[in-house]
Write a structure and sequence with these properties.
Immunoglobulin-like, 12 strands, Cytochrome Bc1 Complex, Chain D, domain 2, 5-stranded mixed beta sheet, binds dinuclear copper ion, single chain
């Protein structure tokens, strides 16, 4: 009879703890809005695991509170407890139940992971590069690089993550998906945003002094809004490259070449207003990095051959872009 009462008391404590922790879990909105197709399945796994943990917590708390309450040593009691040699039934129970639960959690998580990482054929790819302490997003198809991740709603995107210096971690809470960005390798995330709006991109790997401030913005827009954004970014990028290209030209090339657009007057090399007329990017690039490949009649091969090393790739790109835009205008 006392044994049955003890079990009953433990159950009552367990139920009270279970209801209290269940209430804390249920009535406080712990999770942010779901804004991706993957979020629902991920949340289901989360709650599956949380409920199992809650039940185990209630059992452990029930037994611990009961033991602390009933078996407290009296002030003058210095005896050791009675020796016990285990309990086979109990040991089997506490081995089998956790084994079943852990297996269930891993199988369920594995199934969901396979599901959410399935990539449809018509997906977009965006390269995400992390560095202390900023995010860079590259749209290969659209030839854009931005500091803000803009995506069309309802379209699956594969984010290819990497890092330049130390390990960072990409996370958008509303999308639920999260993965490390690691120097030297490419990891990927598949996500399908389902809600338009602005969401924070957060670095969740302690990566240095600026870690806490390493945030960017993910903006989800309609597909028309996305096309419009791409067009605007392209225009801005071209204008920026042309401005940079013109500056570079004036500094690096102007003392030897005439170019009306840049108001340069050097006469050591050919007049570019003439030789560049109608030329394409490939020709212009070749003439910059390998000037002796074609010598304009009447000129000596004196142009430095190391512009390919002296200038960075983006500098050469902007120079080429500028010269081609000038060549096309005349
Ligand atoms: Cu990057 Cu923390």
């Amino acid at each position: 009879m006392p044994r049955r009462r003890a079990v009953l008391q433990m159950i009552v404590i367990g139920v009270v703890v279970g209801i209290a922790s269940g209430g804390v879990a249920y009535f406080i909105p712990w999770l942010p809005d779901q804004a991706s197709k993957e979020a629902e399945a991920i949340d289901a796994v989360y709650w599956f695991v949380a409920i199992i943990c809650g039940l185990i917590f209630a059992v452990v708390a029930g037994v611990s509170v009961y033991a602390g309450w009933k078996f407290r040593a009296a002030p003058d009691d210095t005896d050791d407890g009675a020796p016990i040699h285990g309990h086979t039934g109990l040991e089997i129970t506490w081995t089998v139940i956790p084994t079943v639960l852990v297996t269930a959690m891993s199988v369920y998580s594995g199934v969901v992971l396979t599901q959410i990482e399935r990539l449809p054929d018509d997906h977009r790819v965006v390269k995400v590069t992390a560095q202390q302490f900023a995010w860079r997003f590259e749209y290969g198809e659209e030839k854009l690089t931005t500091g803000e991740l803009v995506l069309p709603v309802g379209q699956t995107v594969k984010l290819e993550l990497t890092a330049e210096d130390v390990i960072h971690s990409f996370w958008v809470p509303e999308w639920r998906v999260k993965k490390d960005a690691v120097p030297g390798i490419v990891t990927d995330i598949v996500v399908t945003p389902t809600k338009e709006g602005r969401f924070p991109v957060i670095c969740t790997e302690l990566c240095g002094l600026g870690h806490a401030a390493m945030r960017a913005r993910a903006v989800v827009v309609s597909s028309e809004g996305f096309d419009q954004w791409v067009a605007e970014q392209r225009r801005a990028a071209e204008a920026g490259a042309a401005v940079q290209g013109k500056q570079l030209f004036t500094q690096q090339c102007g003392s030897c070449h005439v170019l009306a657009d840049a108001e340069t007057t050097g006469e050591t090399g050919p007049n570019l207003d003439n030789v560049l007329r109608g030329k394409d990017a490939e020709y212009v690039r070749e003439q910059i990095v390998n000037p002796d490949s074609r010598i304009t009649p009447g000129f000596q091969p004196v142009m430095p051959k190391d512009f390919g090393e002296r200038l960075s790739d983006p500098q050469i790109d902007s120079l080429v872009e500028y010269l081609v835009s000038v060549a096309g205008r005349r």
